[in-house]
Design goal:
Chain A: This is NADH-quinone oxidoreductase subunit M. The complex is a heterodimer of chains A (about 500) and B (about 475). Chain A is mainly alpha-helical. Chain A is built from 24 helices and 2 strands. Chain A has a two-stranded antiparallel sheet. With about 475 residues, chain B is mainly α. Chain B has one domain. Classes of the chains: A mainly alpha (about 500), B mainly alpha (about 475).
């Protein structure tokens, strides 16, 4: 095993593990299914670790590159590589997959093998999205990923799962098809090549750039999701099983922001600048308006879903500020949001597994019967609200600092999220966790099991670790972020 | 005046097939009902023999014979080979179905082989009349096949509709061809192209002839606004026949467009391109939108076919070698996909149960995860989502259209495929997210099951390694149209 194939391994180990789970898994022997799935997820994470240890922080170039001819007829290559921007997403994704497998350990009763396999295969495909340096390869992973997610929501989800899954699929497909058209256009402009790095070097007039920007925007804005194309997310989240929500919030939303960084900014820099005002406005609407929407939610999952949209607004805001602080803040915010939103959904999952309701009104005084759980839930809620010392603070704070360099009002509006975030999260915590025991069901609750403790403590340590020592996470990004800003600031015509 | 014997070598496959099927026609009279399996085996052997003849002779060259009215080029060889292979699959998938419905007769095989002969003649036609001959052979055989289930009123209605409309379309085609003949003075396609290129023909008559020609062609391919027969035939015909109708004749349809438009009318590309754009957009729109409203699986696939043919036209109307190769790749992929889709319907059906309603797919994942997975692959390929052959087929035609400068058409096409994704996804939803309505285990002949698995997995394999098929199509087109 050479370092040259690490990225391939990060894609194919989980996928092969998923196929193995499908082949071996029997409903009569769930132990074997889970065992194979867990080993697969652990192996999938282990092969990504050398990416971090072997990563050269000072370099902005693509690392761990692999390139093979795939379809010579269209000059499509199997070209993989990561830089400081994509590195973290691969690690985050592989890591969250382990948690999802543990979270679904005994909770999923029907067709467990297919459930585990869907997550493992999706994990591999998502890694593929982040490491592809060929547009068609990227597209293949980008779309193929929709199918397992569609099945996860539709098969294991809540009552309105079918509606939610189809809405999720069609929303995302709409965007990606326009992106495909843009890719084909760029293929001819780049001298019959689908290399993303060659796309970035193509000189395009502003009018064309704007059209391409819009095609990419349709695809990625839906993924992020940005206001006003966010409406699929609350539905998908509410209906998805816990694991599905975790992967959706922690990973797939990041694909949208990653797309902006990898495609929009470097390929259409002038259009990005021309439309930056619009993008910032949309981001701020997401931050403020969606924050207000979150405030009135009755369903915990919906509340966290809206909170995700609001937090992702910060990310897109940071990206389109075009300064290193904004962009790095946005990236940190994404990693942190991966941990926190994942943790929040897992917490809600813990409650849901016991009570089979997500309505805030059905709870109250959970701290009395589940003290250990309450500790975690309060910690993650504080992190979600951006409490200093937790990872939630770092990203938001840096983005606000970046915004203030550009425009005072951007920063002011963005900073309202610290108030709004605290309001909706803490209000929910107050109603769910604290107070008198609300009813007999709550009184009968059992505190978390060892398995639940395991995934919550891991996430808690990460949230605190990142909050106290963010340098560990930000260091590998610097070089790539600076290079990207330079690319995005160099006019192309 | 001397009479030279024409060079028969290029037509050996057709001659062999004709001889073999004539022998089958007679031999079948002496085969008792209980030994009908022999007819099936004989038909398969005839196909193997035809395939064998397709492999001998001058591969990779363009040879004409019968005074230039019959052409044997790499494109013809490839398309014929695929047609023969398709028919072989069709027979294997159908055997069980026709046996349980009292259709296991010699006529079924003879008619399908005759239709195949028609397809092969069309593919190799280099003369208007030869083309017409092949076309009528195909159409008449198809009409009889559709009506094979004599006591079914739906089938008879479908056959009637097909027959009348096919006659009308043939009439239009002939009318168009006669105008072209009037303007150019020849029926030989290569010469027609020459005369038009030299500007010696009256453009007014040519364009008028072209309009009739495109109308006739569009009918045969089943594209809007000449698509009305498609849903009725797909729904009304016995599924085994629908399987045939939806596969091999589409290859002939592609060849038909290639020979007439790209070949004979090549110099008039500007005129037929704009006509095909309209037909293509309408097909994608009407096919995809109407498919959403269907509850009958066969009817839904019929509208899906209409939409797919619209996509196929995108490649042809690009008017470049790359575009033709993309269209050829598209048609081959489509045939493979459609073959698998109807093969699965045939597998699920049994005596007294057609499995032709969308609801019959409910809970397939519970009944058989493997077939649900195969159907998932088929639907993904139809929707053109990676990882499937359908994705690269779509990519090929879209890039051909974009290369021809038709950016807006590409945008329309991708939006249409979004609409298409909806009803393919609904099938996936029925299979995976709903509870089964009946729990009868899915049984079938082992060869049927094996071939179906190979067929559907090929879609996946081509989605990962499409290069060999792309190469085959590109080489066939390039070698055939260069000369």
């Amino acid at each position: 095993m050479t370092a040259h194939h690490l990225l391939s391994l990060s894609i194919w180990v989980p996928i092969l593990a998923g196929i193995l789970v499908l082949a071996l898994g029997r409903d009569s022997n769930p132990g074997l299914t889970r065992g194979v799935a867990l080993v697969g997820a652990l192996l999938g994470f282990l092969v990504t670790l050398p990416l971090y240890t072997g990563f050269i922080n000072a370099s902005a170039a693509m690392q761990f590159e692999e390139a093979y001819r795939w379809i010579p007829a269209f000059n499509i290559t199997y070209h993989l590589g990561i830089d400081g921007i994509s590195l973290w997403f691969v690690l985050l994704n592989s890591f969250m997959t382990i948690l999802v497998v543990i979270a679904g350990w005994i909770v999923i009763e029907k067709r467990q093998a297919q459930y585990m396999a869907a997550f493992l295969i999706m994990s591999g495909l998502i890694n593929g999205v982040f490491v592809s340096l060929d547009a068609i390869l990227f597209y293949v992973f980008f779309e193929a990923m929709l199918i397992p997610m569609y099945l996860i929501i539709g098969v294991w989800g809540g009552p309105r799962r079918v509606y939610a899954s189809i809405k999720f699929f069609l929303y995302t497909l709409l965007g990606s098809l326009l992106m495909l058209a843009a890719f084909i256009y760029l293929y001819f402009e780049a001298g019959e090549s689908f290399e993303i790095l060659k796309f970035q070097a193509v000189a395009l007039p502003l009018g064309v750039q704007i059209l391409i920007f819009i095609a990419f925007f349709m695809s990625f804005a839906v993924k992020v999701p940005m206001w006003p194309v966010h409406t699929w997310l609350p539905d998908a989240h509410v209906e998805a099983p816990t694991g599905g929500s975790v992967i959706l919030a922690a990973i797939t939303l990041k694909i949208g922001a990653y797309g902006f960084l990898r495609f929009n900014l470097p390929i259409t820099p002038d259009a990005s600048h021309a439309l930056a005002g619009t993008m910032i406005t949309l981001s701020l609407i997401a931050v403020v308006y969606i924050g207000l929407v979150a405030l009135v939610q009755q369903d915990m999952k919906k509340l966290v879903a809206y909170s995700s949209i609001s937090h992702m607004g910060f990310v897109t805001l940071g990206i389109f500020l075009f300064n290193p602080m904004g962009m790095e803040g946005g990236l940190l915010q994404m990693i942190s949001h991966g941990f926190i939103s994942g943790a929040m959904f897992l917490c809600i999952g813990v409650l849901y597994d016991r009570m089979h309701t997500r309505q805030i009104a059905d709870y109250g005084g959970v701290a009395n019967t589940m003290p250990k759980f309450a500790t975690f839930m309060v910690l993650f809620s504080m992190a979600n609200a951006g409490l200093p010392g937790t990872s939630g603070f770092i990203g938001e704070f840096i983005v606000v600092l970046g915004a203030i360099q550009v425009n005072f009002w951007y920063a002011t509006l963005a900073a309202t999220t610290l108030v709004l975030g605290a309001a909706y999260t803490l209000w929910m915590v107050k109603r769910v966790i604290f107070g008198e025991v609300a009813n007999d069901h709550v009184a009968a609750l059992k505190d978390i099991s060892g398995r639940e403790f395991l995934f919550l403590i891991i996430l808690a340590l990460l949230v605190l670790g990142m909050g106290l020592y963010p340098k560990l996470f930000s260091e590998p990004m610097h070089a790539s972020v600076l290079q990207l800003i330079e690319q995005a600031s160099t006019p192309k015509f | 005046m001397t009479f030279a014997t024409p060079n028969l070598v290029p037509a050996y496959p057709e001659i062999f097939l004709l001889v073999a099927l004539s022998a089958l026609l007679i031999a079948d009279l002496f085969i008792s009902e209980s030994k009908r399996f022999l007819t099936y085996a004989y038909a398969q052997l005839a196909l193997v023999g035809t395939a064998g003849f397709l492999l001998i002779g001058s591969l990779g060259q363009v040879v004409t014979t019968f005074n230039g009215s019959f052409v044997d080029d790499p494109m013809a060889r490839t398309l014929k080979m695929i047609s023969v292979l398709t028919v072989s699959f069709v027979l294997a998938y159908s055997r069980d179905y026709i046996q349980s419905r009292g259709l296991f007769k010699g006529e079924f095989f003879v008619l399908i082989l005759f239709a195949l002969l028609g397809i092969m003649v069309m593919i190799s036609a280099n003369h208007f009349l030869v083309l017409y001959l092949g076309l009528e052979l195909l159409s008449l055989s198809l009409a009889s096949l559709i009506a094979l289930q004599r006591d079914s009123s739906v089938a008879t209605e479908a056959a009637m509709k097909y027959f009348v409309l096919a006659a009308l379309a043939s009439g239009m085609l002939l009318y168009g061809l006669s105008m072209i003949y009037g303007a150019t003075g020849t029926l030989q396609m290569a010469e027609v192209a020459n005369v038009i290129a030299q500007g010696n023909a009256d453009p007014g008559i040519l364009v008028l002839g072209l309009v009739f020609m495109v109308a006739g062609l569009s009918f045969k391919l089943g594209v809007v606004p000449f698509h009305m027969w498609v849903p009725d035939v797909y729904e009304g015909a016995p599924t085994a026949v629908t399987l045939f109708v939806s596969t091999a004749p589409k290859i002939a349809g592609f060849a038909f467009f290639m020979r007439l438009l790209a070949g004979a009318m090549g110099p008039m590309i500007a005129d037929w391109q704009s006509m095909l754009i309209i037909v293509s957009v309408l097909s994608m729109l009407v096919g995809n939108v109407t498919a959403i409203a269907q509850t009958n699986l066969k009817r839904m696939l019929a509208y899906s076919t209409i939409a797919h043919m619209g996509f196929l036209l995108l490649g042809i109307l690009s008017g470049t070698l790359g575009g033709y190769a993309a269209a050829m790749f598209y048609v081959v992929t489509y045939v493979l996909t459609s073959l698998a889709a109807f093969g699965l319907i045939l597998l699920m059906s049994r005596e007294g149960f057609e499995a032709d309603q969308l609801n019959d797919l409910k809970g397939l994942n519970k009944r058989s995860p493997w077939y649900a997975f195969l159907m998932l692959l088929i639907m993904i390929s139809m929707a053109g989502i990676p990882v499937s052959a359908g994705f690269f087929a779509k990519l090929s035609v879209l890039s051909a259209a974009l290369d021809a400068g038709l950016t807006w058409l590409v945008v329309v096409a991708v939006l249409m495929s979004l609409i298409g994704a909806f009803y393919y996804l609904r099938v996936v939803k029925l299979m995976y997210m709903d509870e089964p309505e009946d729990d009868t285990p899915i049984v079938g002949e082992s060869d049927h099951r094996l071939l179906l698995s190979i067929n559907a997995l090929t879609l996946l394999a081509l989605g990962i390694i499409p290069q060999p098929l792309i190469d085959l199509c590109t080489a066939s087109i390039a070698q055939s149209l260069r000369g």
